[in-house]
């Protein structure tokens, strides 16, 4: 049994729980290393304080489940069978000393919650989501190695994008070239939709790449990430094509200073909202405070956006083992925008960046 599943079992004992039902495929992967997209089909990992866990999945996925790190009973069902019949039989073979069942409330459909309730009308529900989120916040050596590799490939992807810049080329064409070149080398899964923005479109923090063409004097912004063994990277770099105005230089240098100072300030025990404030003060002092319109960053791992939210309102503190993004930005309508984003792993001794593509302003010829 994996250490992560053992940790859940110990938590269930403390909570006097009957069992935990994990339905989110990402959390199932986190605990078992079994990757499955069940679509509309039933997927469930059932963990107990004392009894052996079991996993139920579509029959077509059983082979992969048995080959995963799970190592316990795997139950498959055909599309013409009711999976709850198998759930009930498996639960009947296990102890029922408690009525408290832990679920993921924000991802578990109401219909499935009702089905659990039908097993025993005395069942009460608790949430395991916060505990799982806290577990996923802290990366072990395997997870960190995957994220370092994902960061390395993200660095390479930015280089591919910059090398593809040409006058008149569209944002969408550069996106296609980046992803095509990565796929040729075996990196076919992006962490999210690749973003390449140019000109005034860079003033949209979450703009959409399209038919905008690159012109001289444009900012060109790259925001992308890749997935390695399930774990994501997320990097943003901004360059200028041919030349940059004094204002563009100021916007860029201010954003870079905010990025560097926030990374330097990250340490164990620091209030997350205060870290956001470090970057926000740099940008406000330069006169661009109103143009920094989003939080400093977000947690990163199996999902491209995880806890913690690196916002001014977050009173939680940084913990050793966390991976999060630092991504200040300035977005001026009619001029353009700059964002500089790095993935940061927090060690006992301070921050370690997982993305390393150069951050000084590059003027692309």
UniProtKB/TrEMBL annotation:
Keywords: Hydrolase, Manganese, Metal-binding. Residues 146-348 form the Peptidase M24 domain. It comes from Sporolactobacillus terrae. This is Xaa-Pro dipeptidase. The keyword Metal-binding applies. One of its GO terms (molecular function) is aminopeptidase activity. Its cofactor is Mn(2+). The keyword Oxidoreductase does not apply. Residues 5-138 form the Creatinase N-terminal domain. Belongs to the peptidase M24B family.
């Amino acid at each position: 049994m994996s250490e992560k599943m053992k940790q859940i079992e110990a938590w269930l004992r403390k909570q006097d729980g009957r069992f935990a039902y994990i339905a989110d495929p990402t959390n199932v992967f986190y605990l078992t290393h079994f990757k499955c997209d069940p679509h509309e089909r039933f997927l469930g990992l059932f963990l107990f304080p004392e009894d052996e866990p079991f996993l139920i999945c579509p029959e077509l996925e059983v082979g992969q489940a048995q080959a995963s790190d799970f190592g316990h009973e795997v139950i498959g069902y055909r599309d013409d069978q009711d999976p709850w019949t198998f759930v009930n039989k498996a639960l009947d073979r296990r102890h029922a000393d408690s009525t408290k069942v832990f679920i993921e409330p924000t991802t578990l459909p109401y219909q499935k919650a009702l089905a659990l309730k039908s097993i025993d009308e005395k069942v009460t529900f608790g949430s395991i989501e916060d505990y799982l989120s806290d577990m996923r916040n802290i990366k072990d050596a395997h997870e960190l190695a995957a994220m370092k590799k994902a960061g390395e490939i993200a660095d390479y992807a930015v280089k591919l994008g910059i090398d593809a810049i040409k006058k008149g080329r569209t944002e969408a064409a550069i996106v296609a070239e980046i992803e095509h070149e990565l796929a040729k080398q075996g990196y076919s899964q992006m962490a999210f939709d690749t973003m390449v923005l140019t000109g005034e479109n860079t003033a949209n923090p979450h703009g959409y790449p399209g038919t905008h063409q690159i012109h001289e004097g444009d900012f060109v912004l790259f925001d992308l990430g890749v997935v390695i063994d399930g774990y994501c990277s997320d990097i943003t770099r901004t360059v200028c094509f041919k030349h940059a105005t004094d204002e563009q230089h100021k916007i860029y240098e201010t954003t870079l200073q905010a990025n560097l100072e926030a990374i330097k300030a990250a340490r164990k025990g620091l209030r997350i909202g205060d870290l956001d404030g470090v970057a926000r003060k740099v940008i406000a002092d330069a006169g661009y405070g109103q143009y920094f319109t989003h939080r400093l960053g977000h947690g990163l791992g199996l999902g491209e956006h995880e806890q913690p939210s690196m916002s001014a309102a977050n009173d939680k503190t940084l913990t050793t083992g966390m991976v999060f993004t630092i991504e200040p930005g300035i977005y001026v309508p009619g001029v353009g925008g700059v964002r500089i984003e790095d993935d940061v792993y927090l060690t006992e001794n301070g921050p370690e960046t997982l993305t390393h593509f150069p951050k000084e302003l590059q003027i692309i010829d």
